[in-house]
Write a structure and sequence with these properties.
It is built from 14 helices and 45 strands. The model is unreliable at about 1-20 (pLDDT under 50). The strands form eleven sheets. Strands 7, 8, 9, 10, 11, 14, 15, 17, 18, 22 and 23 form an eleven-stranded antiparallel beta sheet that branches. Strands 24-25-28-31-34-35-36-37 form an eight-stranded parallel barrel. Helices cover about 20% and strands about 30% of the residues. Helix 7 packs parallel to helix 8 and helix 12 runs parallel beside helix 13. The protein binds zinc ion. Zinc ion binds near residues 416 and 419.
Length: about 725
C-alpha cells in the first residue's frame, strides 16, 4: 500500500542502526521514537507491505491552570524511568519539575495478534490542585503519496432506529475531512448527526485492500477526526473537545488517563479488519468466564412483549413456556419495581418477591435476569428508594428538579455516578440488587452517564454560563461545556462499579442497553457481556443494526430483540426469528399466542441455533456477503469457521415481488476445495460445490415468497 521504506530496509533499520523500541504483534509493528521534544510513533509496519511514516509528534500539554493562572510546563524525558519490554510494552516517562508532573506515554500488546493499545497518564506529584487542558489519546499524521487511493469506513450506532445508511464508505480525496462522535446518549432525533461506534478503518481499494484501523476503549464523550491533505492523512482520537473549552481537575496525588485507544493494520478490506478486531476484542477486552461458557450467547425470553404489565402469574407462565421452547434465560424487563429509583419488587405484582421468580427459573433450568435503570432517582419515599428531595441525593443529581416535577413510568432524574458518594452508594445498590434477586444477568438501561452536570462540588469541571437544561422524557438533560469531563468521571465510576461487581459475582452477565444501542463502544465491550444494539425490533431494523455493528464487535455480543411482527406464512415467521438470530437472540413477544405450527417452528429454530448456529457465531469468521439490508432486495451474512470446516449463510429475501433468486458470492473459502451445501428449509437439494464457484460466480438461492429466508450450511468436503 504505502511504499515509503522497503520492508528489508525497515528490518535492518530496527536491528542495526536504530535503538528505537518496537512494540509488535503478528499483525502490526510500531517503531517508537523519543529523540525529539516529544515522543513519537515513528513508523507502522503492517500486512500488504505497509510501512507508513508518522510525522506527528505527541502533543504533550504545554500548560496547566493553577489558581486561575496559566503555568507553562517544560517536559523532560526521564530515560531512567522508561520501561521497555520489547515487543510487548514500551513506556516513555516525562517529568515536569514545576508544576511537578509525571507523564507516562505507553504502548502495549496484550495479545500475540491484532492491534496495539496506547494511553497517556499524567500524575500530579505536587501539592496544588491544577487543571489540565485537553490531552488527545492519539494523533497520527501518516505520510501517504497523494496518488494512492484511500477509503474511510465507519459504522453508526443502531441507537433508536438504524438509519437508512448505517455503514459508510467514503472516498478520501484531497481535502477530505470527517469527524465521528460517540457518547452514551446518541441523539438520533430527526436531523441530528448519527453517532458512530468509535472506530475508523482506512484502506486502499487496490488488492490486497490493506490499511489500518483505530478505535477508542471508552464510553464517555469521544471523537475521531480524519482528514487528507496533500501528502498527509491526519487522524486524532480521544475525548471530545466539543462542547468546550475542555478542562479537567487534577488533585494532588491524582492522575488523568486518556481513553485507551487501539491501532491495528490489516488486509482484506473492512471484513479483513473485522476478522482481526473481533477475535481481539474477545481475547483482550472480553470477559474470559463468559467466553468459557459454552451457552454464550444465550437464547433469552424477555417480558417486554407485554410491556409494564409483567407480574408473578405472567412470569411463571413465561418460565414454563421458555423451558418448553428450549430458551436458556428468563429476562424481566421494566415494570417489576415499586417505582423509578425504588428498585424493589412491586408487592402487588410480585407478592413473593423476585428471588422467588429467580428460584423458579433456576428450578426449570433457566437463568434469570432483570432490567434496572439504577442511576435514576424519583419521588418514592419507601426505605431504599432514591428520592430527589432527599438533600443527600439532591447533591448527586445532575440538576435540581422543579417543585412540580414527576418521573415518567420508568425514567426519573439522573444521578451523577462520578460523584464519589454516589458511586459508593450505587456500588452497594447494584450488589444488593444482584444478591437479593438471585440474578444471573443485570441489564442496565437509561442514561447512565450524564450529559452534563450543574454541580460544582463534583470531581468534574464546574458548569459555566453556556449550560442549558432541557426537559425531555421526564429527565432534565443538561447540555454543557463540562459534558465531556462529566462523562470522563462518570464512565470511570461506572467501570469501577462493574469491575467490582464482576469480582464479587463471577459468572454474572451484564447487558449494556442504555436506551437501546447508545452505548455500543469498546469501553463497554470491556465491562459488559453483550449489547442491545438497537431500540427498534422489526426484522429489517434488527438485520441493519447487526450488519453495521458486526463489522467491529463480536457477533456473540450483539443482541437482537425479536418483537411481534405480522407473519401470515410460516416462512415470514422464520424470517422474523432468523433476522434476530445472527448474534445473541432475545425473544420479546407473547409466545402463548403462537399457533402450534409457529410454536414448533420456533422450538426447532432454537434447537438449531444452539446446536449449529451458536458455535459459528462464537468462533466463526464473519463475512458481509451482500449490500446492507434494505428490506426490498436480498441480503445475507456468511460465517465460516476454518477450524471446524463448517459455516453457514443466512439468506434473506426482501419484499420485491419478482426477485425469486439471488446469487451469493462467498468469502474466506479455499478455491481448490469442495464444500457440501445443505439447504435447511429444502429450498434446493443438497449438493457439493467447488470453492472456486462459491467465491467466484457464487451460488444461487431460490425463495418463492417475499420476506422469507433460508439457512445454507457449508461443510468442508476435502480437495477438488
Ligand atoms: Zn456531577
Amino acid at each position: 500500500m504505502f511504499f515509503l521504506l522497503s520492508l528489508a530496509a525497515a528490518a535492518s533499520a530496527t536491528t542495526t542502526w536504530s535503538p528505537d523500541p518496537v512494540v509488535a504483534t503478528s499483525d502490526i509493528r510500531l517503531m517508537l521514537n523519543a529523540s525529539g521534544e516529544a515522543p513519537r510513533l515513528a513508523i507502522m509496519y503492517g500486512p500488504g507491505h505497509q510501512d507508513i511514516m508518522n510525522r506527528a509528534g505527541e502533543s504533550l500539554p504545554r500548560s496547566v491552570e493553577i489558581n486561575g493562572a496559566n503555568v507553562a510546563i517544560t517536559w523532560q524525558h526521564k530515560k531512567e524511568l522508561d520501561l521497555l519490554d520489547d515487543p510487548h510494552r514500551a513506556v516513555f516517562v516525562y517529568e515536569s519539575a514545576e508544576p511537578h508532573l509525571r507523564l507516562r506515554w505507553e504502548w502495549f500488546a496484550r495479545a500475540e495478534f491484532g492491534p496495539i493499545e496506547h494511553r497517556i497518564t499524567i500524575e500530579n506529584l505536587g501539592d496544588k490542585e491544577l487543571w489540565l487542558p485537553m490531552v488527545d489519546s492519539l494523533r497520527l499524521e501518516w505520510k501517504v503519496p497523494p496518488t494512492i487511493e484511500l477509503r474511510s469506513f465507519y459504522v453508526e450506532k443502531g441507537a433508536d432506529k438504524p438509519s437508512d445508511q448505517g455503514t459508510h464508505l467514503d472516498t478520501m480525496t484531497d481535502g477530505y475531512r470527517w469527524t465521528g462522535a460517540s457518547s452514551t446518549y446518541a441523539d438520533h432525533s430527526e436531523g441530528a448527526p448519527r453517532e458512530i461506534i468509535p472506530a475508523e478503518i482506512v484502506y486502499s481499494p487496490a488488492q490486497p485492500r490493506a490499511g489500518w484501523y483505530a478505535g477508542i476503549e471508552f464510553s464517555g464523550c469521544t471523537r475521531i477526526t480524519l482528514e487528507r491533505s496533500g501528502k498527509s492523512v491526519r487522524s486524532v482520537l480521544g475525548l471530545n473537545p466539543d462542547p468546550g473549552p475542555f478542562r479537567t481537575r487534577l488533585v494532588p496525588g491524582g492522575s488523568f488517563e486518556t481513553p485507551t485507544v487501539f491501532l491495528g493494520a490489516f488486509e482484506g478490506g473492512p471484513d479483513g479488519a473485522g476478522n482481526q478486531l473481533r477475535p481481539w476484542v474477545r481475547a483482550v477486552l472480553g470477559n474470559p468466564l463468559t467466553w468459557k461458557d459454552e451457552h454464550y450467547p444465550l437464547v433469552v425470553n424477555n417480558s417486554w412483549g407485554s410491556g409494564m404489565a409483567i407480574d408473578e402469574p405472567l412470569a411463571l407462565r413465561m418460565i414454563a413456556e421458555s423451558k418448553e421452547l428450549g430458551v436458556e434465560m428468563f429476562h424481566i424487563d421494566a415494570g417489576w419495581f415499586r417505582g423509578v429509583g425504588d428498585w424493589y419488587p412491586d408487592p402487588k405484582k410480585f407478592p413473593h418477591g423476585l428471588a422467588y421468580i429467580a428460584d423458579e427459573a433456576h428450578k426449570n433450568g433457566l437463568r434469570f435476569g432483570i432490567w434496572v435503570d439504577w442511576t435514576q432517582a424519583a419521588l418514592d419515599t419507601e426505605p431504599g428508594a432514591l428520592n430527589v428531595r432527599d438533600p443527600r441525593v439532591r447533591d448527586w443529581l445532575v440538576a435540581d428538579v422543579g417543585p412540580d416535577w414527576k418521573p415518567e413510568e420508568f425514567k426519573g432524574q439522573t444521578a451523577d455516578v462520578g460523584a464519589p458518594a454516589a458511586r459508593d452508594y450505587f456500588r452497594a445498590e447494584v450488589k444488593r440488587i444482584v444478591d437479593d434477586y438471585h440474578l444471573d444477568m443485570l441489564e442496565h438501561d437509561g442514561y447512565l452517564v450524564a450529559q452534563g452536570c450543574v454541580r460544582s462540588d463534583h470531581p468534574h469541571a464546574p458548569p459555566d454560563r453556556s449550560m442549558v437544561v432541557k426537559h425531555e422524557w421526564g429527565s432534565d438533560f443538561v447540555y454543557a461545556s463540562n459534558a465531556t469531563d462529566v462523562s470522563y468521571h462518570a464512565v470511570r465510576a461506572y467501570y469501577d462499579i462493574y469491575e467490582h461487581t464482576r469480582k464479587e459475582h463471577p459468572g454474572l452477565l451484564f447487558e449494556i442497553c442504555n436506551d437501546g444501542g447508545r452505548m455500543v463502544d469498546f469501553g463497554s465491550a470491556a465491562h459488559g457481556d453483550y449489547f442491545s444494539i438497537t431500540d427498534t425490533y422489526d426484522p429489517l431494523s434488527n438485520r441493519r443494526a447487526f450488519y453495521d455493528t458486526s463489522f467491529v464487535l463480536p457477533a456473540a455480543m450483539l443482541e437482537s430483540y425479536v418483537e411481534k411482527w405480522t407473519t401470515p406464512r410460516i416462512e415470514n415467521f422464520l424470517y422474523m426469528l432468523r433476522s434476530g438470530m445472527m448474534g445473541w437472540l432475545t425473544l420479546m413477544l407473547d409466545t402463548s399466542v403462537w399457533t402450534p405450527e409457529q410454536h414448533q417452528a420456533a422450538k426447532d429454530a432454537v434447537a438449531l441455533y444452539k446446536s449449529e448456529l451458536r458455535p459459528l457465531i462464537r468462533d466463526g469468521r464473519l463475512h458481509h456477503v451482500s449490500p446492507r439490508p434494505d428490506g426490498v432486495h436480498w441480503d445475507g451474512v456468511e460465517y465460516w469457521d476454518p477450524a471446524r470446516g463448517k459455516g453457514v449463510v443466512f439468506a434473506f429475501r426482501g419484499s420485491a415481488p419478482g426477485e425469486t433468486e439471488h446469487r451469493f458470492v462467498l468469502a474466506g473459502l479455499d478455491a481448490r476445495k469442495r464444500y457440501r451445501l445443505h439447504f435447511q428449509d429444502g429450498s434446493a437439494p443438497d449438493r457439493t460445490a467447488p470453492g472456486s464457484e462459491l467465491i467466484g460466480p457464487g451460488f444461487p438461492v431460490h425463495l418463492k415468497n417475499p420476506l422469507s429466508s433460508e439457512l445454507i450450511f457449508l461443510t468442508s468436503a476435502g480437495g477438488k
